[in-house]
Structure formats: structure tokens, C-alpha cells
Amino acid sequence: EDKVVQSPLSLVVHEGDTVTLNCSYEVTNFRSLLWYKQEKKAPTFLFMLTSSGIEKKSGRLSSILDKKELFSILNITATQTGDSAIYLCAVEARHPQGGSNYKLTFGKGTLLTVNP
Amino acid sequence: DAGVTQSPTHLIKTRGQQVTLRCSPKSGHDTVSWYQQALGQGPQFIFQYYEEEERQRGNFPDRFSGHQFPNYSSELNVNALLLGDSALYLCASSLANRPQPQHFGDGTRLSIL
Prior knowledge:
A: 5-stranded antiparallel beta sheet; B: 7-stranded mixed beta sheet; 0% helix
């Protein structure tokens, strides 16, 4: 069974701090790893990673994937109160019977609280 | 460009009742996936619909069923509701055969009394 583990489960920091969120996985038929930010309702897409060692950046956020060690990290520099949210890591895997069907397996998420 | 829309936003039911949740995918998307998110947990995959057929299913009982219509919209039906079915139900849409992220709706908050 596909498995995604995130750590830490919760984190409290002060504005301006840098944080690193971790995600490890065990899946068969891996296609990609995704990071989402969830504030109140819909998870919103941050990054999609398919290749090892290539860092993706968007402003103060960055992420990288290690397909050999089966993990990814999400970094947030100079945190702001608006970064407070649940950060979800998900792995996309092909259906065991093949074809073009992929499903997401999520971790439990990391609850990040940024205090002013 | 409309994103994924779900209805209703909130719903209160009692044990044993049945419920239907609705989802309209993002414009241009043809695949709909449903997830259940209990409090403090990540979303759990329920099933996925493409070309009006259920293509994949997670570890959910047969009380959970769905449908996809020709316009790609979808419904999730849950019968014989249990207290443990209380959760946020999320719909996500994507385009088959494309390595693109799934886009999520705001979800339906289902409370079972």
C-alpha cells in the first residue's frame, strides 16, 4: 500500500524564520510528488516534482525531490504570518493495472503557525 | 475561467440517511477524483471517474458510490451514513494523460449527528 509520511506534524515559528518541511514516501509506479497549501478549504497547488535534484522555486518557497532516498523537502524562507497553513505532500502513482489513471496519496500534513 | 466548484458547502445529516454531493470540474478537465478529509488528517482517496466510469477506487466501502455525467461533472453518494463519515469531502479535477496537478474545490463539510 502506498504510504506518505510528513514531518514535523506541527511547527510554530516567528516571522522571518526559515522552515524546512519533510516528506518521505513509499509508492509503486511513482509519477510525481506534489506540495499543496491548505488554509481553510481547498488545497492550493504549490509544486509538482518529477525529477531528482532539480529545485523548484516560487518566491520564498522552494522544493526539491530525491528519488533515490524517496523524500522531498519544502523550504520557506523569511516566513510571514500569511504562510500559516497546513502543508500537504502527495505522491501521484499509476494505477496498479496500468493505463493512464493516476491517484494521489497524501500525508497527514504539517501545520505551520507563524507568529508575528 | 471557473475553477472546481462543489455543492453544497455544508450539510448536516443523521445516522442512516443518504447524501449526494456534487462537483463541477475546472473548465477543460475531464477527470474527477473524490477525497475524504477527516479532521487533522490528509485527504484520503475515495475514487476517480473518467469517461463516465469509475477508474480507480480507494479503501472505502460500497456505501460510497459515484457517477460522472457527459459534461464531466460528478456526484458522490453515501448511503447509510455513520458518525465516522463526518468529514470534509473534496473534489479534484485533472486532464487525463497529462502530467498536470489536480485542482481542488473548496469541499463540502458533512456533519453526521
